[in-house]
Design goal:
It is a single chain. By secondary structure, this protein is α+β, with helices and mostly antiparallel strands. The protein contains five helices and eight strands. It has one domain (2-200): Gcn5-related N-acetyltransferase (GNAT) (Aminopeptidase). A hairpin with a 6-residue loop joins strand 3 (90-95) and strand 4. The protein is globular. Residues 7-38 have low confidence and may be disordered.
Length: 205
C-alpha cells in the first residue's frame, strides 16, 4: 500500500467514513510518499467518491451540490496544499501496492503544536474497497507517519456509537477509547454523538 500526501475531505474529523473490518490479505508493503501526478489523482478521487456517494454521505458532513466537480476539487486542493505547507493538516491518498488503484484517503487535521503536539484523524474509502482491511492498514501507516515524520505526541479520532466496524479499525490500530461527546460533530445534517479515541507516541511519553 502506498500513501501519498495530497488530499482528503479533512473537514470531517469523524474517523468513520469507511466502515471497515480488519483483514490483511491484500497487502504487500506500506509506505508514505509525496504526491506526484495531480491530474491523475484528481480524476481518480472524484470518480471514486461519486461512485461511493450513497455509501459515504451518511458518515460525512453534508456534501455541497458541486462536491465532486473538478472545479470544486481544484479549489479544495489548493487549500490542502497550503495547509500541508503550513503544518495545519496533512491529507493523504491511499493507493494499493502493485496496481496503484486508489482506495481512499486518510487525513491528519487540526494539527496543534506547542504544548499539545496533536492532530485529529479522519478517513474514507470507496465502497467497493470496504471491509477488506485497507483502511485498517492505512490508519496504522498514517499513525506511524504522524509519530515518526511529523513528530506528533498524540493522534485523536472519533466515531459514532453505532459504527462498530469503524470502532474496530481504531482499536486494532492501537487507539484507546477515552470517552464520549454529545452532539460532537454535524454529520449528514445532524449533530451526532461520538465516541472519542486517542493514541500516544510512546517514544515521546
Amino acid at each position: 500500500m502506498m500513501i501519498e500526501e495530497l488530499d482528503n475531505e479533512y473537514e470531517a474529523q469523524d474517523s468513520e467514513a469507511e466502515l471497515d473490518e480488519e483483514t490483511e490479505s491484500d497487502f504487500e508493503s506500506e509506505g508514505t510518499e509525496e504526491a506526484g501526478d495531480v491530474d491523475r489523482a484528481d480524476l481518480l478521487k472524484l470518480y471514486l467518491r461519486e461512485a461511493s456517494r450513497a455509501f459515504l454521505t451518511p458518515w460525512e458532513p453534508t456534501w455541497a451540490i458541486d462536491e465532486t466537480s473538478r472545479g470544486s476539487y481544484r479549489y479544495k486542493l489548493r487549500r490542502y496544499v497550503e495547509d500541508a505547507r503550513d503544518d495545519r493538516a496533512h491529507a493523504l491518498f491511499v493507493f494499493r501496492e502493485g496496481d496503484d488503484v486508489l482506495l481512499g484517503g486518510v487525513t491528519l487535521s487540526n494539527v496543534r503544536r506547542g504544548v499539545a503536539q496533536a492532530a485529529s484523524l479522519g478517513y474514507w474509502a470507496g465502497e467497493r474497497f470496504a471491509g477488506r482491511g485497507y483502511t485498517s492498514a492505512a490508519v496504522r501507516a498514517v499513525v506511524r507517519y504522524a509519530f515518526d515524520d511529523l513528530d506528533l505526541h498524540r493522534v485523536e479520532a472519533a466515531c459514532q456509537p453505532d459504527n462498530i466496524a469503524s470502532r474496530r479499525v481504531l482499536e486494532k490500530a492501537g487507539f484507546t477509547h477515552e470517552g464520549a461527546a454529545k452532539a460532537y460533530l454535524k454529520i449528514n445534517g445532524q449533530w451526532r454523538d461520538h465516541l472519542l479515541f486517542g493514541i500516544i507516541n510512546e517514544l515521546r511519553a
